[in-house]
Amino acid sequence: MQRNRHRRFSFSVWRLPRLAGVIVVASSLLLLASDNRPDRIPSYVSWTPETIAAASAGDAFRGMLLARHCDHCHGAEGFSAVASTPNLVRMDKLAIWKQLEDFRAHKRTSRVMEPISESLSPRDVADVVAYYSKLPVFTDPQDNRSFPQSRPDPAHAGIASRLISFGDGERGIPPCQTCHGPVAYRPGVPSLATQNADYVLNQLEAFASRARANDINEPMRTIAALLTEDERHALAEYYGAGLGLQPGSSK
Fold it and tell me: Which CATH number belongs to the domain containing residue 226 in this structure?
């Protein structure tokens, strides 16, 4: 009996080094796999004083000349004729600057915008964003803008108004106006005050599916994923109808 117990004990001790080796190898493979994971940094933009100064130092007149190349898609007055293309009129300069930098770094994907952003020098980017940030929002009889779209039905308007003003605390959804402002505008954040409905919806869906992932700290990916499909449509329709311009997003 003593000999058998000793043999079983010796056999177990003999297996331990082999088991430890397997664990070490497995751990090494996991580390290698983690090292080979795709880069998940959402954006290379860092809001240092130098970055803000560079993005804010543009020449709007020179930007107007450069923006003639953008008119075909974004409209001569910054209002696109196609509802799925973003309006750039009065967009905050830091917000546009970041998006162009993200396109340049392939942190935000677009077959159209990536090569365009790569062709612009840092000075060009600053000049273009200075121009769009100063455009007036009043109607020009010569343009062909799609904004604003038709007003949403009352049920959708109510859903959007509540989410914009109050969010949904039970689901951890903050009010939209916390970041985007009570009249859909806040410095440093993409303006929704004069944005097309189809574009807003497409971006919400892209964030929800994580097809778009250039939001630092993931606020939009998190919030968009918590929204229902009906809520995303309601918000897009509300902003696309120009209702976000109302103070406090009132009905």
Answer: 1.10.760.10
What SS3 string covers 125-154? HHHHHHHHHCCCCCCCCCCCCCCCCCCCCH
- Is the whole-model pTM more than 0.85? no
**How many structural domains does the chain have?**
2
- How close are the terminal C-alpha atoms of the chain, in Å? 87
Q: Print pLDDT tens along the chain (251 aa).
A: 545 544 444 444 434 444 444 443 344 434 444 445 455 899 999 999 999 999 999 999 999 999 999 999 999 899 999 999 999 999 999 999 999 999 999 999 999 999 999 999 999 999 999 999 999 988 888 788 999 999 999 999 999 999 999 999 999 999 999 999 998 888 889 999 999 999 999 999 999 999 999 999 999 999 999 999 999 999 999 999 999 987 654 44
Query: Within 13 Å, how many C-alpha atoms sit on residue 24's CB side?
Result: 6
- Give the separation between CA 178 and CA 197, rounded to whole angstroms: 20
60 contacts: CB under 8 Å, gap ≥ 6: 127, 130, 131, 133, 134
